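Chapter summary example.
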Amino acid sequence: MTGVVVARGLVKRFVTREGGLLWRGRKRVVEALRGVSFEARRGEIFGLLGPNGAGKTTTIKILSTLLLPDAGEAWVNGYDVVREPNKVRESIGVSLYSDRGFYWKLTGRENLMYFARLYHLDPAYARERIRYLLELLDLEADADRLVEEYSTGMKSKLNIARALLHDPPVLFLDEPTIGLDPGAARKVREVVLHLKREGRTILLTTHNMFEADMLCDRIAIISRGQIVAVGTPGELKAKVSGHRVVEVEVLAPDQRLAEAVKRVEGVFGAALSVKDPASGLSELRVIYDSDDSLAKILSLVASSGAKLLSVRSLEPTLEDVFIALTGERLGQAG
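The structure predicted for these 334 residues follows.
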């Protein structure tokens, strides 16, 4: 086993009941993970790229011992996540997309000191470690404010600081920049790159293709609980190299339009996403290979009854890889 974080055939199912509070219908089994396998190497940033509901957070929770898999195996830093959970927890820092774990009536510094005690850190070391982390994450000026006064970005950075208290070699970051303003998101990305330079192995989940492209050494694209491709950003984008991308803005399209476009000769992938449900404003993104194909695509759109508003030619991105592999856009699958 060469990977620091290894997942082999992970399966996770959740059982829910249809209906509301007053009526409970039949049970429904949701397959959150369907045989997820990958390896993150020592010292790299490994990304799980996929839309909401794809299985990213479930994967993180299994790897961090918060959930048990229904099938499959996983190891972190050489320790089995099921048989050696305490050893795994000693090796990892976890930042999930949630601020519910903080005590809002304590300051940021007091929260970190409380969690440092749970880690049994020496008080003098903890104070110095907290000072360093507050400075690293640009929180020193707000360290003695109550957490209830913190912005979303400040809470996200405090979450990362908590994950780093015990100086773990492996870090799990679940959507670390979601909901942040551009300045806060940029600072978090800078910190992630700094942590990599320190030699940590970082598993990062995101649905942001720009973030994945910028930060990750390798990426696993995940859709509907399955890994559909793994590679460097360059290797993944090479899957659509030589192809062209067009984004067509349309009004009130038939929802079957993308499926019809996929059948056009020379089309490599297509996906339709609704931008404004009230007006029916939508975007059709198509990967194709020639001017002849583009002409047929636009003709098909025009004959479908949808109003064509604009056409833009674009450079291929990781989202186009996702479309080519899944037939859906990053913002719509799940």
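To summarize the output: The mean pLDDT is 93.
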